[in-house]
Amino acid sequence: MPFLAALSLLTATPASAAPLKTLASSHQLLIGSAVRTDPLEQDAEYRAFITKHFSVITPENAFKFEALQPERGKFDFAEADRLVEFARKHGIKVRGHTLLWHHPGAFPAWIKEREKEWTPAEAKELLEAHVRAVITHFRKQGKGTVFCFDVANELIGDQGEYRKDTLWARIAPDPVTLLDQVFRWARAADPSLKLFYNDYGIEMPGKKADAALRLLEGLKKKKTPIDGLGLQMHFSRRFRPDYAKVETQLRKYAGLGLTLHVTEFDYAIPDGDDSAETLKEQADAYAGAIRACLKVKACKAFVTWGFTDRVSYFKQDPSGEGRAFLLDEKGVPKPAFHAVESALRQGRR
Ligand code: XIL
Predict the structure, then answer these.
(1) Is residue 58 within 8 Å of 95, Cβ to Cβ?
(2) Which residues pair with 269 in a beta bridge?
(3) Which residues, other chains included, contact 326 with Cβ-Cβ below 8 Å and sequence gap of 6+?
(4) Choice from 264, 309, 316 to test ligand 1 binding pocket (greatest atom count within 8 A of CB)
(5) Beta bridge partners of 304
(6) Which of 89, 131, 337, 101 has its CA nearest to residue 230?
(7) Tens digits of per-residue pLDDT, 316-329?
(8) Catalytic residue (choose from 264, 281, 321, 341)
(9) Ligand 1 mean position to 264 CA, how many Å?
(10) Ligand 1 pocket: which residues have CB below 6 Å?
(11) Which atom of ligand 1 is nearest to the CA of 34?
(12) Does the annotation count 128 as an active-site position?
């Protein structure tokens, strides 16, 4: 064998050997997933995949209101701090998630017990204290590891309406006034933290995307300190992405001068369907999302809402679909993993 051919055989790395984060970083893209603290601490395989492949992680639940303020005025950062310390040690960034969220799953019992009774003034006091305390804590503890925060999550309903029947909506009559206030508290607590609004169903043109644009334009007009928009991108056959439309919509948001992050990508497939066709449909959905993000310069992070079907919020879901992630139940890479890898090799075009 000629010397050069032998040398190239020796130096050629199999495609599967390159960490996703290395491929992504050459396009100034962060890549990662939501993570849970239990497997992070107890499962070496789970941990190894994260440290090999990811440059960013989002705590799936550990930074939510319920986790951080289990009793009024008594914060518990122990679990969150362990996650931040793990990330810091491995040079991984952390997306903070989330401060203002209406979902009952995010509220501690002490808030839920009196949910109907909190007055607007009390709601404001609770939220302000929470936002300031949490951000101040991670400014000191994380030393830049927690680099951005979904300050507010899912304020807009499915028809594009302001979610009015929620505790936090009592603070202000419209979403611009509410977020202007909350983002100012956040900026005051940490001037270097990147502040995001995060939502689902705003990825393609439609009522909800229009409402998100109006909200963001309103904030820009008020000079609210907002840096970015998080697009969740929970997709499936029922919520099928059309990536030409996704790209169009991403450009509209980028036109407002915002950084864009894909924050919770997944593509659920029907239970029991392991056909090559279905796995390819999922792989194409992952690759399409990466490509749409890479095409829009403002898109700087691609984060999935889990990475292995073994540790997955779909296990709580009765919808009849799931297995939405890169690795199967046994931790074996699915076609989606290889599709992400090759989309990252192609880069920004
Ligand atoms: C979900 C978690 O995955 C679940 O474990 C928890 O029980 C409820 O919250 N949009 C979001 C996430 O912004 O915070 C949600 O996470 C999923 C939908």
Answers:
(1) yes
(2) 322
(3) 286, 304, 307, 308, 333, 334, 336, 337, 340
(4) 264
(5) 33, 265
(6) 101
(7) 888 899 999 999 99
(8) 264
(9) 9
(10) 60-61, 105, 153, 232, 264, 313
(11) 3
(12) no
State the average pLDDT over residues 124-132: 98
What is the spatial distance between Cα 228 and Cα 230, in angstroms, rounded to a whole number?
7
CB burial of 51-89 (b: ≥16 within 10 Å; e: otherwise) equals eebbbbbbbbbbbbbbbbbeeeeebebebbeebbebbbe
Distance CA 22, CA 30 (A): 9
The predicted-structure confidence for 295-316, as pLDDT tens digits, reads as follows 999 999 999 999 999 999 998 8
Whole-number mean pLDDT of the chain?
94
> What's the whole-model pTM score?
0.95
| Amino acid (1-letter code) at residue 21 | K
Ligand 1 atom nearest residue 154's Cα: 13
- Here the tokens at position 79 are 């679990």
- Nearest 5°: the CA angle 71, 74, 77 is 105
